[in-house]
Amino acid sequence: MSGETTPSLIDKAGVAGQVSLSASTESAWIEVIQKMDEVYADLVRYQIALEAKNAALEEAQQFIRSVLSAMTDVLIVCDKRGRIEQVNAALERLTGHAAEAVMQQRVEALFMPESRPLAEKFPEKLATGGLVDCEVSLCGANGEAVPLAMNCSARYDHEGRLMGMVLIGRPVGELRRAYDELNSAHQQLQKTQQHLIHSEKMASLGRLVAGVAHELNNPISFVYGNAHALKRYGEGITRYITAIDAGTAPDALRELRAELKIDRILRDLTPLIAGTMEGAERVSDIVQELRRYSASRQEAARAYDVVEVIHKALSWVFKVERRTPQLDLDLPDTLMVEGHPGHVHQILVNLVQNAMDVMEDLGEQRLSIACHVEADVVTISVRDYGPGIPAEALNQVFDPFYSSKPVGKGTGLGLYVSYGMATDLGGELTAINHPDGGALFTLRLPREGGLHERA
Ligand SMILES: Nc1ncnc2c1ncn2[C@@H]1O[C@H](COP(=O)(O)OP(=O)(O)OP(=O)(O)O)[C@@H](O)[C@H]1O
Ligand SMILES: [Mg+2]
Question: What's the 279 CA to ligand 1 centre distance in angstroms?
Fold first, then answer.
């Protein structure tokens, strides 16, 4: 019904005016008609208001219905004892049950057997503030488990009385599947990475072996050649001595001496032996160089002079390299430290060797070595005057197998091993480029309580 003006009952009873009635009866009638008119108008107003309220209610319900059915999370409304009063479309979809079919059922009936004990406790959990993100599994449309992250909270009426509970569950199956996939992809990636590292290590080992074989080949063939010559010389000398012992005449002896080139042999003998020894030393040097890759980690901590170790490392590299750069040394005479001299020696050999490598082709080769103690820390710095480390390689030089050197010359393990050893010693190894050029490596080591300077 609309709000259009309705004809008054007085108008409808207009004919009455033409009827001749006594004055009192007429006024009584008019009063009755007016009252009826008022009641009728009120009725019409109520009807209009009611219709408006109905429309608003309908709209509100429609709004709630649309929200509930748009929810992807599961919604279950129960009374205080856990009987279902309302569910949303998400629950219908997941369980395959129509809302009407589950009304007034116990809520735990919706869950998988293993989740029921917890679901039965929902009502009593309300007293302690409900449940947050507990994991339960709904019984899916095909009997499968549908995992949910469930929140359970209390529902009150307008006077604050407990009416029941509201359960909201977020399906986590998709999330879990995605997580599992991510996890297995991650594991796969880790495996691939390990394979890569392994094959990289093998390749590097191959390069190392090829380099070592090449390095060893020279002095060994040198020693081998010399040994052959010595053998020949030995045979000549033996023949000559045998002739002397046999009392050969001086002229014949002179002839034999010339024939056997005894004088040349005697002249050659010393350099030949020196060369052979040099070759053997080179082999021994190479073997020692190899040993720096297999540092003995069992070495016990002991007091040692770090300055002596620095000097030893320097001379070791210079001897192997057969060249000595200009040296700027800023070192105390001695500096006693407690720790592992073998490791420190190896780190320094690696640093000095790298410095020598980058300056190999430079006319002027210069190296600055400094050692200081401050508080509990010993700082040793090795600075060269080479080209420095390219900016893009600064954070790569400590990576295993990073090397800018040709195959056979560098394995890229020197700084990696050194970094690991410095860390094992409780210290650190850092690399920067000096503002005035060249690379600056700094090794910091703890005093380990045993550090003291000797007078
Ligand atoms: N003083 C330096 N100046 C410039 N670059 C350097 C210096 N020291 C190291 N690098 C760079 O860091 C790389 C890695 O050095 P690292 O000592 O780990 O390996 P390598 O010297 O190449 O091989 P090796 O295993 O024989 O030591 C070098 O190849 C070089 O590119
Ligand atoms: Mg190196």
Answer: 27
Relative to the alpha carbon of 353, which ligand is closest?
2
Which residues does a 6 A CB cutoff place in the pocket of ligand 1? 350, 354-355, 358, 384, 386, 388-389, 397, 402-405, 410-416, 439
Supply the pLDDT for residue 3: 44
User: In terms of DSSP H, where are the helices of 246-305?
Assistant: 250-259, 262-291
Residues facing residue 384 across a β-bridge? 367
Return the ligand number nearest the Cα of 397: 1
Q: Minimal CA–CA distance to 357: which of 395, 291, 426, 414?
A: 414
Q: Which of 15-29, 255-269, 402-416 has the lowest mean pLDDT?
A: 15-29
Q: Which two tokens stand for residue 117?
A: 């004990």
Pairing of strands 377-384, 84-87: unpaired
Residue among 230, 229, 238 nearest 256 (CA): 238
What b-and-e string marks burial along 342-377, b requiring 16 or more CB atoms within 10 Å of the CB? bbbbbbbbbbbbbbbbbbeeeeebbbbbbbebeeee
pLDDT at 2 over 70: no
Higher pLDDT, 1 or 126: 126
290, 415, 418: residue to mutate for ligand 1 pocket, most atoms within 8 A of CB: 415
44-52 long-range contacts (CB < 8 A, ≥24 apart) are: 44/1, 44/3, 44/6, 47/1, 48/1, 48/2, 48/3, 51/1
Which is the closest atom of ligand 1 to the Cα of 411?
25
Please report the pLDDT score of residue 451 as a whole number.
33
**DSSP character string of 29-61:** HHHHHHHHHHHHHHHHHHHHHHHHHHHHHHHHH
Sign of CA dihedral 303, 305, 309, 312: negative
Of the ligands numbered here, which is closest to the C-alpha atom of 402?
A: 1
